[in-house]
Design goal:
449 residues; alpha+beta; Cathepsin B, Chain A; 6-stranded antiparallel β-sheet; 3-stranded mixed β-sheet; 16 helices; 45% helix; 17% strand; globular
Amino acid sequence: MNNDNQNSLEQAATAAHTVYGAIKTGRAISAAAKGAALGGPYGAAAGLALAAGEHGKKLLAGMAVLLLLPVMFVLMLPGLTFGGLTSSGANGQPILNDSPAIIGHLDAIAAAIDEILNEGLADAKERIAQDFAGTGGDNYEVVEPFSVSSSTNLFIGQYCAAREQDWAAISLDDMKQLLRSGKSSRYSFTRTSEIRTVEADDPDTPDIVETKQETWYIYTLVYNGESYFAGHVFHLSEEQKTLAGEYANNLSLFLGDGMFQDTKYGGNTITSLGSVRFTDGVTEVVYFNQLDQRYANQPYGTDNIGGYGCGPTAMSIVISSLTDDIVDPVEMARWAYEHGGWCKGQGSYHTLIPNAAQAWGLPVEGCTAKEPQRILDALSQGRLVVAIMGKGHFTSSGHFIVLRGVKDGQILVADPASTSRSQKLWDLSIILNEAGKRAGAGWPFWLIG
């Protein structure tokens, strides 16, 4: 790094530390990210200055951000996303304005995380084999999760929070090394046993079916999740955990990926809707609303359904409509929590959708925003489509909705947070354009049924 860059980095670090001390960091970076969503980097400056002004530090924050904006904003949104604190995009333009470069960095980070999680899976299976060797059992099987519920944004947030002000050390290689140091922490397993009757073929009596009793051990693999990583791999303090969560929230806002779901629920519920069914599509849809007074204040992990339960509520709609099992949001929230679908303070991992569909025996396929005909065909066949939406008509952050049919060339929806939006017809172009850009489970749409 040349002297000019080093000086800029040191100045930015000093400014960031000053602002960090003057303002609650979460409030500052939320204002910066929301400002960026509205007006780009200079909107970020205005947002941060406004947040600072509420604490009597407007001039300090405004000067710091305006003079050191590119580096400062990277500090507010972890530098790993942008390839470093002093990076430039194509043709020397600011990296914040180079979406392909940012997406490239995120793809590399996501690929690295997947690679390391798969290494952890292989390590867990080796530990299972070693454990079984000491049981004296006859055989064993391994039950794996449908898919791993991981969040690139949370990993980035935790890693950068762990490095605190050592920004120059932040790199993908360093993150990979740190993650690999906690290999045995990625997965744990439980063990049960049972006696099974199996065929015992005797080559001397091929026409006679013989059986025998065997002792089998069943190992269930559990992905320990980002909360576990925070304490056991990144060794974060409580303050660092808060910072990591704010980083993840604001990355989601900046990227428009729908990872962070928040209905801005402040405790106000709607009157119980009772039994609501929509019959204007091919499939009769059982409707639930997360703000319904029966569900809103019920727990979703340590959060509540009203604020963060759009994912479980969307799957309540899907499961109750496509199977013979009526599953309300409280039951689905409990299932999501127990099966790794809940993401503390952020809503649901996107993998909740395919995992829950498969758990209730429903076929599920991912679909991109570039395949509108697949969505239309699925709805015309009576299937339901879950979509993760980014900022726009349905949400200011992230939100799961259910597409439930086609009428007069437009889309019928079941919005878990709005009965009025559920009774309107929507242009498919709006839904395609506002769908999450970087869905955590690989898709912004899931075709179910």
